[in-house]
Design brief:
By secondary structure, the protein is mostly helical. Strand 1 and strand 2 form a beta hairpin.
């Protein structure tokens, strides 16, 4: 990024993208939960059944909804990047990958992918399989979009730092909303 105005615009788009991508991920859980008959509560940074318990054996499918929706939104924005080569679409693709990567590093056992592996009975070694599949898919999409847009490692390092701020903003916003209820 050469122009500071463009950098500021990109940062603002990253912030909006963080809220959008995070909400879309949670919406995936919510939609699957509702389709399967659970009365779900949707928050900006989480979803849960109103009753506190999932109906029957629906938890596995509900957990899959978030990562699947994250991959879908990445694919949509990647296709738009491939076609139009617009840098302002990149924050969604980058944020989805980076946020999934970061949460896997920070609190792996609490994430969708680890819970999915556990529910599938994948054992100690297999517990990373779903995370690896999701992250590899998102990495490929991000790498390809980065190549199309001619982003280098310095650009992506800068975007990673922005994403850390964005994740913090999403979490703080969620906490504030919970406190105001």
């Amino acid at each position: 990024m050469k122009n500071s105005d463009n950098k500021l615009k990109l940062i603002l788009i990253f912030i909006l993208s963080a809220y959008f991508a995070n909400f879309f991920h949670e919406l995936g859980h919510w939609i699957v939960g509702e389709i399967l008959g659970n009365d779900m509560i949707l928050n900006i940074n989480g979803v849960r059944p109103k009753s506190g318990e999932y109906i029957g054996n629906t938890e596995l499918f509900i957990l899959c909804g978030g990562p699947i929706f994250s991959i879908i939104i990445s694919i949509i924005f990647w296709c738009l990047i491939e076609k139009y080569k617009i840098i302002y679409l990149y924050p969604v693709v980058f944020f989805v990958f980076f946020s999934r990567l970061l949460v896997q590093i920070i609190k792996f056992d609490l994430q969708d992918e680890a819970k999915i592996s556990a529910l599938l009975g994948m054992g100690r070694i297999g517990k990373y399989a779903i995370a690896i599949i999701v992250l590899a898919t998102l990495f490929f999409i991000t790498w390809r979009a980065s190549r199309v847009l001619k982003r280098n490692y310095k650009d992506n390092l800068f975007y990673g730092l922005i994403c850390i701020l964005c994740i913090f903003l999403v979490v703080i916003t969620d906490l504030i909303i919970h406190l105001l209820r």
